[in-house]
Design brief:
- 2 copies of one chain form a homodimer.
- Helix content of chain A is 64%, strand content 3%.
- Chain A is globular and about 70 Å long.
- Chain A is mostly helical.
- Chains A and B meet through helix 1 and helix 2 of A and helix 1 and helix 2 of B.
Chain lengths: 497, 497
């Protein structure tokens, strides 16, 4: 057999096992009975163990070596080899004992974090966080992609992204965000959020979200929507991509924008070219690119003015009591309120990236041993004051708010802001090619955008690395000006400044 | 490590992988989007392949050998070793190519059967059935538990049951069933089924089934009920045992008795002793014993007179329009109508076993090469005429009605009737120990029965083989008189003969 085919087939079994692990996870979050978690976690550990064993096997090494001997690989084949090597290299460098200790500590970390957050007491979380940080340092030292530990961790989520480059991007971005925020805060005509905090019947919210999904071309023949505590997207194969949402009866945006955000992730995975189905390339280019898709749909499209020209009259019919006499423009302003706030996941488009930047600064320092972990709450609160001029009243609303570090996900946060930057840069390019998009949205038509993203991003899966893909689409490197312009063009009118 | 512990741990991973395969199957039948089956079947094949590899590995052989060297095994340990050997022996004797061919043919068989049944054309199904029969013969010759091929296949579902023994049991049973049926058919006071064929709202049926489940002590903390085309029970671990039901709005019994039947299976698996959780012993003693539990709850309890003293007034409140003025006694008679009919799964308690006996006779002959497969429809129809005095109008309602043979499940049918026999024999023993059970049912109390079954059957899982278990509980070997008496005592009063 062709060595590349053989390599592809071998690693496809790993992809399939990941889909199986994904089903275990989906079921855990969506339908598993409350008392069944012990059995489930053992099954997950078992499947993860089988994946790890396959990944570091002599056969994997041999297949990679054979494939490296093949001349004139085409672009798909060389991406396949690249990803096989990436997966193999990362796995083979970490001894199984450390893998298990990391998994065990992540589980303990998550439980301890939940307890600490409930009590709003960082000291409860501190010892296990120290352990996590030290294990992640060990892991990074072993994998050692470099130049720094943080780069190694980052590379897992955002291939080829370097810590220095992120620093530069974020340092450019920060003063602009503060400037824009300042201008918005000086406004005397602020939107009013009362209308979206009225009571909205759960079942009607659900129905509206499904109506929107259908119109956006989400394919229920190979997907479904369910409810879970935290919305997420999961692929159980390239022809089974499911999303979840949550419904808050006293906050209308939670369900709708949760649905649309996850739609953006799901449509990516639904549109992979069949030739890469079930392979290592059946994945997003990076977490940042993935996030660019969810944010493009959620923020640029669905929080945009034109989207509501079509949908607001429909939404009014779903909720006449609350909305019949409420002006469309004011509704649009209401869902785009900008306001420094304590909690990242509730932040608006302007302040969101400031939350990310401070997390990035902290976790980078953690990896470099430049922080005394006991001082984290203080450091957190000082950064909040500097960036957003507010101070958390307690640890639960401060340093303990995010789940990521408790599970060992260090190096993940930057991908959220990269997603915003990629999205606005890509969208500006799309608008050049399709200047009538806003009018289409206003008519409830989304297929031009779906097709464009499918043809230029989705179908490639992981064939291109994020910056190559960005250059391929936009003709330039990452340029945060697009995001800054997007924010100014959108929010100054909303705030009438 | 203790060789038995080591053996147990090794095979527990196989049990866990089976739970994972069960989740894949549950999801396929309950929530998977319609267009996603291709990806799913590849994942299932992959997990089955991993299980097979683990089962026939040199390590498995070595662990079994080591365990065989241990003296003075207790009853759990020796059952563990027995089951490990059973699993290993069956798997190691069948070459992987035959395993794959069987799986492939079963998939093709199932698809072809669906097509053939839709067209009601046996000839479409015949070639693949011939292939299936010949592969099963090959498999039986390789495994060769003997004395006949049919014994070998039977042993997989009903350990230690011999074909000769089944023949004797069924031959004793047959004339009694025909005699009882004849007497019932001579009755001039037959129940009327009109009332259960009225329209019953699906959502209310669902709610009633959940209310019943709760009262029966089904533990929703480690289980759940969903809907599927065919009701089934599935364990995703010993602390995650789910059931499904189906709702027919124009036939009330479908949902309720589907739920209660599956409850009987589920409560078995929920009550395994924790020391056998996740091991090879976390399973029913046999399919026959499993079926005895579902039928005990469905037929003896829930189609019994006392059950409805409690539930009928409640059911009347759910469906006042249909039932308010309908007498309880007539309702009870209605759900116990006896009538020769074409379709096994719709058959009553008296005729059901006649359907089974003819299938047993046919499949036994198939394995012995005593049948020309092209003549099956004819053989089927003649047996129907002899046993039930009706002739199928076409193959769909005749030889093509069951799914079993299409997937290679030959030797499975007898377990249904064994289930009936076990159930009535066991229940008669329980009644001796707890003569007030009927009064308890009439008060809506079921915990005495649940506890008895838990303590005397469920907690043991697969520790005892079916006939040992039966003897342990009832002090005697299988005795079909209990079933015959049960039928006479129940149905003669209903039919006033």
């Amino acid at each position: 057999m062709n060595p590349i085919k053989e390599l592809t087939e071998y690693f496809s079994d790993i992809t399939r096992l990941r889909y199986v692990a994904n089903l275990l996870d989906w079921d855990t979050q969506v339908y598993m009975p409350p008392g069944s978690s012990q059995g489930r976690s053992e099954q997950t550990a078992l499947i993860e163990g089988i994946i790890h064993k396959k990944l570091v096997s002599e056969k994997a090494a041999r297949l990679i070596k054979n494939a490296e001997g093949v001349a004139n690989l085409d672009i798909v084949e060389s991406a396949m080899l690249r990803e096989a090597k990436r997966n193999y290299d990362r796995a083979v460098k970490v001894p199984i004992d450390l893998v298990k200790e990391l998994a065990k500590t992540a589980t303990l970390g998550h439980k301890t974090w939940e307890k600490a957050r409930a009590k709003s007491d960082f000291k409860t979380f501190q010892p296990v966080l120290e352990k996590i940080v030290s294990l992640k340092q060990k892991e990074a030292d072993l994998i050692d992609i470099g130049p720094t530990r943080y780069d190694t961790l980052l590379d897992q989520f955002e291939p080829d992204a370097k810590s220095d480059w992120i620093l530069k991007v974020f340092n450019e971005l920060k003063p602009h965000l503060k400037r824009i925020l300042g201008k918005i805060e000086s406004s005397t005509e602020k939107p009013n959020q009362d209308v979206i905090k009225m009571h909205y019947d759960a079942q009607k919210q659900w129905k509206f979200s499904v109506e929107v999904l259908k119109k956006l071309n989400y394919d229920f023949n190979i997907g479904r929507q369910d409810k879970s505590a935290h919305p997420f997207t999961v692929s159980l194969s390239s022809i089974d991509v499911r999303i979840t949402t949550r419904i808050w009866e006293n906050f209308l945006p939670a369900c709708l924008f949760g649905t649309i955000h996850e739609f953006g992730h799901a449509i990516y995975e639904m549109n992979f070219n069949p030739e890469i189905h079930d392979t290592l390339l059946a994945d997003g280019s990076s977490l940042g690119i993935h996030e660019s898709q969810s944010r493009l749909w959620e923020n640029i499209v669905a929080r945009g003015r034109d989207f509501w020209k079509y949908w607001y009259p429909i939404l009014q019919k779903y909720f006449p009591k609350n909305l019949k006499d409420y002006p469309e423009e004011e509704f649009y302003r209401s869902i785009n309120t900008v306001q420094p706030s304590l909690i990242r996941v509730e932040a608006d488009e302007v302040t969101y990236s400031l939350h990310i930047i401070m997390r990035y600064e902290i976790e980078k320092a953690l990896m470099g041993d430049d922080v005394n972990i006991s001082e984290l709450p203080q450091i957190w609160n000082e950064k909040m004051e500097t960036l957003l001029s507010i101070t958390p009243p307690d640890d639960a609303k401060g340093v303990l708010q995010d789940v990521h570090w408790s599970g060992g996900a260090i190096g993940y946060f930057p991908t959220y802001t990269l997603g915003n930057l990629y999205a606005s840069q890509i969208y500006s390019k799309i608008l050049e090619a399709h200047p009538s998009l806003p009018e289409e949205f206003a008519r409830g038509e989304f297929s031009t955008l779906v097709s464009y993203l499918g043809e230029n991003i989705h179908k490639f899966g992981k064939i291109y690395t994020p910056l190559d893909l960005l250059k391929k689409i936009t003709g330039e490197d990452l340029n945060s000006n697009y995001f800054i312009e997007y924010l100014e063009n959108k929010f100054y009118p909303i705030y009438k400044v």
